[in-house]
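Good morning C.,

I know you're traveling, so I'll keep this short. The sequence:
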Amino acid sequence: MNKSIILVVCCLAVASAADYYVESRILETTQTPLDQSTDVPSSSPSSGADDLSAKVYSFFYEVKHEESKNDYSHAESSDGKVVKGTYKVLLPDGRNQNVEYVADSNGYVAQVKYEGEAKYPEFQPARTSRILGY
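The tokens, ready to paste straight into the viewer:
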């Protein structure tokens, strides 16, 4: 019993001491970041049976954490038949990758664009030392 309590206290101490904070924003589903041109009536599930029909939804999130260089966002909405979305990712080479997509009965179609110019560190040959023998 005492070992369990000590283990829980240690886990809580480690979790509270972690210095990693990610600022994120989650918008309510009523705040639609994408254009939804059609109004779809809400459907109520039938009594007693699982409702497996497509749902109307919308979401958005964004993460920007300077310390870890994480910078990305994603927004998506659906009218029950067509899913539209966009996401942005800061790539390791310094460019932004922006993707806009549509998924419907014809499949998934994405438009990918890049902003900025790729930057790579200057090549530095590795230091080597010669082993002269045993």
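Safe travels,
E.
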